[in-house]
Amino acid sequence: MLPLDRLIVEYPYLFRILGSVILFWILWIPFGNRLIRATEELVKTMKDIFHK
User: Fold this and answer.
1) In contact, 13 and 6? CB cutoff 8 Å
2) Does residue 42 contact residue 36 with C-beta atoms inside 8 Å?
3) Full-model pTM
4) Three-state DSSP class for residue 2
5) 14-43 CB burial, b ≥16 within 10 A, e <16
6) What is the pLDDT of residues 7-30, one digit of tens each?
7) DSSP state letters, 9-38
């Protein structure tokens, strides 16, 4: 048994977390900045609506 195989068997949650992080970064690079800008615009709009 390879050490990596043993790690996967003993700590499956570790690899699940690692996979999630990698997937998050793959999706974050193209969409992250746009998402932040959209959120900022939404917050500004909400503030304008509620302060009137």
Assistant:
1) no
2) no
3) 0.44
4) coil
5) eeeeeeeeeeeeeeeeeeeeeeeeeeeeee
6) 778 888 888 899 999 998 888 887
7) HH-HHHHHHHHHHHHHHHHHHHHHHHHHHH
Residue with tokens 């709009």: 45
- Tokens 């900045």 locate to 33
User: Apex CA 15: angle with CA 12 and CA 18, to 5°?
Assistant: 155
CA distance linking residue 16 with residue 31, whole number of Å: 22
- Unique residue bearing structure tokens 């499956």: 12
Residue position matching structure tokens 């996979």: 19
